[in-house]
Specification:
Length: 475
C-alpha cells in the first residue's frame, strides 16, 4: 500500500482525522468515545449526541439512588468529556432534531449507543390498569428522569406491592420501596419521590420469579443488600428453595454466581422474622396470568400460575405452567421483566430482539449488508451486562470500526456542520460546560435535604435549560 495513493487513519502517516458521532451518552457511548480517543492508530474527533439535556444515561436515570458508589463512575466519563477532541451536544434528539441520514453526511461514521428505553410487557389481561406500572417508569420516576417525573404513584395508600421479575432491577425496586427516611436522606432520589417514599404505607413487597431460586438473575451483592435494611427484611419460605426431581441437574448446570445466590437464600430462609419490619417476600416458580382491578380500575389482586421446572440436555431450565393457581391481594404491580429498544426512524431495527439490526456491532440492512455505522451497548445486544462490561464490549466494536476505516479519502468533514445545523433549526443544544452549570446547581440544592444527600436532581427539561441559560424551543 502506497502513502502516495492511500490515506490511512494514522495521524502520523496521513494527518487525516476520523470524525465520529456517538449517539447516546450512557456507559456504552462514553466507553466507545474513550476507545476512539485513545486508540493508537486513530486521530479521532468525537461528537456525542444525547436526547436529554443531561449526560450519563443509565447511570443518572437508572442506577438506584442508594447506589452512590456505582455512580462514581461518572468521574471517568467526565475525564473523557474534557478531552480536547470531544464535544457534547445534549438536548439533541436523533430522529427529530437531526436525522440519521444527515449524520451520515456530516461524519465519517456514526456509533449508536441509545440503550433500551422501553419495557417488556407481561402480556396478561389487566396489565393496563392503574397501578400496574412497568419498572422503567417507577425507576425513572424515583430517579427524576424527565420522561417519567409526571408518573402518578400513591404510596401513602399502598400496603402490598408485587414486583414481577428476578433480576437486579426487581431487587432495586423492592429495596427502594423499603428504605426509611434516614436511608433516603443519603441518596439522590427525586425530591417528589422522597416525600412519597418516606411516608409510604407499604408493609409487604413480593418479588416474583417464574423459574426457581437457582435461575434468579440478581447478583449476590444485590440480595445481601436486602439483609442490611434498617426497616426491611427479606423472607424466603423453605419450600421456595425446593428444586424438585431435577435438583442435581439444576445445581450442576448453575453458574457459580447462581449457587452463591442460592446459599444466601438458604441463609435468609432460616433467619427469624423481625416484627415491625417491611417484609420482602421472595417467591419462585410463579407466573402472573391476570391483574384484577376494583370498581375504579385500580389494581386489587394478582392471579399467579404455579410452575414446574423442566431442564433440557443443554442445562437450560424452562418453567412450565401447571393447573394450580394462587390469588395475591396487592395494591401495586411493577413488572420488571426486562427492557427493549425503540426504533429510530432511518435505522434498521430488529423487532424480534428489540435492538438495532447488527452483526457483531456493525449495523446491517435487511439483506445483512453493512451500512457503515455501528452500535454498542444494549442497543446492540439487548439488556444484559453490568456497567463495567460495556468497556470491553464497546472497545471491541471500535476495533471493527478501525479495521473498516483503514483507508480514508481526503477529508471533506466540516467540524462546524452539526452546531451550524442545530443553530439554524433553533435547537438549544447543551455542551458539557453547560451541563457542569446544572451539575453544580443540583449539588447545591442538596443542602435543603438533611443527611448526606449528594444532589437533588432537576426533572423538568425547561427548568434545566433555563438554569443553563438556554431558551427552550416552543413545542
Amino acid at each position: 500500500m502506497s502513502d502516495a495513493t492511500t490515506a490511512t487513519v494514522d495521524q502520523e502517516t496521513a494527518g487525516r482525522p476520523l470524525h465520529v458521532a456517538v449517539v447516546g451518552s450512557g456507559p456504552a457511548g462514553f466507553y466507545a468515545a474513550q476507545a476512539l480517543l485513545n486508540h493508537p492508530a486513530l486521530h479521532a474527533h468525537v461528537d456525542m449526541l444525547e436526547r436529554l439535556p443531561t449526560p450519563y444515561g443509565l447511570v443518572r436515570g437508572g442506577v438506584a439512588p442508594d447506589h452512590q458508589k456505582i455512580k462514581r463512575v461518572t468521574g471517568v466519563y467526565q475525564r473523557i468529556a474534557t478531552h480536547p477532541r470531544f464535544r457534547l451536544f445534549a438536548n439533541v434528539s436523533v430522529g427529530q432534531a437531526v436525522q440519521p441520514s444527515e449524520l451520515r453526511q456530516i461524519y465519517d461514521t456514526v456509533i449508536y449507543a441509545v440503550g433500551n428505553e422501553a419495557s417488556r410487557r407481561m402480556g396478561v389481561p389487566g396489565e393496563s390498569l392503574w397501578a400496574c406500572t412497568p419498572a422503567s417508569v417507577f425507576v425513572g420516576w424515583y430517579n427524576a428522569h424527565p420522561d417519567y417525573a409526571a408518573a402518578v404513584f400513591n404510596l401513602k395508600a399502598t400496603k402490598r406491592v408485587a414486583v414481577i421479575g428476578n433480576g437486579n432491577v426487581a431487587i432495586d425496586v423492592a429495596r427502594v420501596l423499603a428504605l426509611t427516611e434516614n436511608e433516603l436522606q443519603q441518596t439522590d432520589v427525586a425530591d417528589y419521590a422522597f416525600e412519597q417514599l418516606r411516608t409510604s404505607a407499604v408493609e409487604e413487597i413480593y418479588v416474583i420469579g417464574r423459574r426457581g431460586p437457582l435461575q434468579a438473575a440478581f447478583t449476590p451483592q444485590e440480595l445481601r443488600e436486602l439483609m442490611t435494611l434498617e426497616a426491611g427484611q427479606p423472607i424466603v419460605a423453605p419450600t421456595e428453595l425446593e428444586l424438585g426431581d431435577s435438583a442435581d441437574k439444576q445445581y450442576q448446570s448453575a453458574s457459580e454466581q447462581a449457587r452463591r445466590v442460592y446459599e444466601i437464600l438458604k441463609e435468609i430462609a432460616f433467619t427469624p422474622h423481625q416484627p415491625g419490619k417491611r417484609k420482602i417476600h421472595l417467591l419462585f416458580r410463579r407466573s402472573p396470568t391476570r391483574v384484577h382491578g376494583d370498581e375504579n380500575d385500580w389494581v386489587s389482586s394478582l392471579t399467579l400460575r404455579l410452575n414446574r421446572l423442566q431442564i433440557d440436555d443443554s442445562g437450560y431450565v424452562r418453567a412450565e405452567g401447571t393447573t394450580e393457581f394462587e390469588e395475591l391481594e396487592v395494591d401495586l404491580v411493577i413488572p420488571a421483566i426486562g427492557y427493549a429498544g425503540q426504533p429510530i426512524s432511518g435505522l434498521p431495527f430488529d423487532e424480534q430482539r428489540g435492538v438495532i439490526r447488527n452483526l457483531d456491532g456493525r449495523i446491517v440492512d435487511e439483506a445483512e449488508q453493512p451500512t457503515g455505522e455501528y452500535v454498542v451497548g444494549w442497543a446492540r445486544s439487548g439488556p444484559k451486562g453490568l456497567i463495567g462490561a460495556h468497556k470491553a464490549a464497546s472497545g471491541q466494536v471500535v476495533e471493527l470500526l478501525v479495521d473498516d476505516f483503514k483507508n480514508l479519502p481526503a477529508s471533506t468533514i466540516d467540524s462546524n456542520a452539526l452546531p451550524n445545523l442545530l443553530t439554524k433549526r433553533a435547537v438549544p443544544f447543551v455542551t458539557f460546560e453547560d451541563w457542569q452549570i446544572l451539575d453544580e446547581a443540583e449539588v447545591h440544592r442538596a443542602r435543603i435535604r438533611s443527611g448526606e444527600c449528594p444532589r437533588i436532581k432537576v426533572a423538568d427539561v425547561d427548568q434545566m435549560l433555563g438554569m443553563m441559560g438556554k431558551t427552550p424551543t416552543e413545542s
